[in-house]
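Target protein
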Amino acid sequence: MTRTLVTRRLSVSRPLPWGWLLLLPVMCLAFARPVVAQTGTRCDAGDRIERVQFEGSPAFDDLTMAMSLVTHEPGFVTRTFGVGTRPCVDTLEVRRDALRLAVLHRQAGWFQAEVVPLLNRRKNGVRVVFQIQPGREATIAEVATTGLPEAPERRRAYDARLESLTGRRFDRNQVDTVIASLVTRLRDDGYARATLPRAEIRIDTAEAKASLTLHFTPGPLTTIGDVHIGIRPVNGKAAWVDSSDVARLLNIQPGDRFSARAILDAQRALYRSEAFRLVLVDTITPDSTRADSLLDLRVTVAEAKTHSARLGIGWATLECGRAQARLTDRGFLGVGRRVELNMRASKLGLASPTDVASGLNYYVGTTLSNSRLFGLPVMPMLSVYSERRSEPFAYLRETTIGALAEFTRSFTPRLVGTVGLQYENGRTDVDPVVSCTRFGQCRPEEVVLSLFGRGIGIVSTSASYDRTNDVSNPARGYRLRGELRAGETVSELVSTVRFYRTSGEVSSYRRALGGVIGGRVQVAAAFAPGAELVGGSPLLPQQERLFVGGQNSVRGYQQNLLGPVTYVVNNVREFTNPEGFSEVEVSPGSSFRAVPRGGTAMLVGNLEYRRNFRFIAEQLQVVTFLDAGTLW
């Protein structure tokens, strides 16, 4: 048995008859009624929902299916402690939910999916069970296309991803995603009038096969005609931005090949300058006297205030009290150029109140950035700073003067690369015991010599590729990051050390068991060819060594205290043994502290399960984690 289904996607709207408009309020009340019935309180205790369960789904987890239903179970607090009111069961809405689940599975490739709702009535309430019978999985037998142009040289054919769907399950959402990405690619390659295709779908229910024919109409290759720029000043004042500044940041000239990605990048560049609070880029069809392969652009920007100040105070687990201040000028020497003055202080009150100054960490610096570098899609940034920062238990770094130049480019919305040049002149203080055991500087004059300032120059490059659905709280996708650093110390008093450090990180997230399972693996290594060896390990600057342990590494260990450590006691007793040799032993009741030595290679793995509790707060989550790591 074969059925043919022809669907069309139109962008033309048709006005509704007045009779339909009069029926809209009645329809809204009809759809709203079941929801009111569920949340209302006018039902017996035996008619209230106790649990909602799902059985037999071959593809979807309970959370995904629950989000597509109107019938819902009470929250954890209501079920466990009886706080609040459980919703009433609505048998009509339960049957509708069964249809919704059937449609969900049919859209995913199970054409004959059926869902049977069961109501198990008990003394304490009703348990709703949706039994899913998916039937045979339908696959794509063939994908044919018409109207697609030839792909540019050395690039894959436009229909390559469509052809790769052959033999896979006929998931309509996946098919629509591939089609949408193809249309986006056509628009990026200059086919500005490319629209979603007309689709013919032939379904063989007996064989559970589907054949697709997609008719594309990309239109002609399009070039940019005129570019019209409009500027709206702040509060009716005179505009401080000139149209030539907007055109410079836009970087789209008349005669350029149309590209939807280039237009989106231009809009991002205008927003990134922070000189505008609103940026609109529209296409205009020229009059009939001009070629249909031309499209004009209309760019409208609304100016933003250029000066801002921010002051904040807070508290953190590692460095106790914090304070920061920031002054920003977004119109420094023209549009797109930004200067920022930052001041931060932390570790306020970590020790006793009178020891605040001795334990203070601070940062004072100014940063100059530009949205483009000589018209290229590269964002340069230059920072000059002075700081004092400490790594818990490991070292204290004091930088008298430092400079950092970075060049960042977004190759795609998800792929970002950065190249940096950094120079610092300062010193690194470590515990005298570590200075002796790790660096071989045991005599007082050697320790004093190590405290003299030295310069460090570093060249670095990094890249990140983010395929997650959320930057701060991902629930699916993966993320890749990598960095390579090469540096050299400069000093007239101690020998020069050339070192290299590389690191990589991969993380992945997936919905499962009603929450999110996430995994992360970090690996890093540091090298110093030709450097002096102490205890079999190269003599690296302490701030370039690797440390493991703490809240962002292996939880359960104190910060930086996983790996080789040196234990320092505060009271020892020296005595002569019966053989006449001097020995030292720890005095009874003395305390000790652990000082990390760091390492040159590390491997850390994290596995965690996150589940949020929206009935208490949207952002509240409970995390169960398993961490492992090692340091050499």
Summary: Residues 290 and 330 are 40 Å apart (CA to CA). Residues 18-39 form the longest helix (22 residues). Confidence is low (pLDDT under 50) at residues 1-40, 350-358.
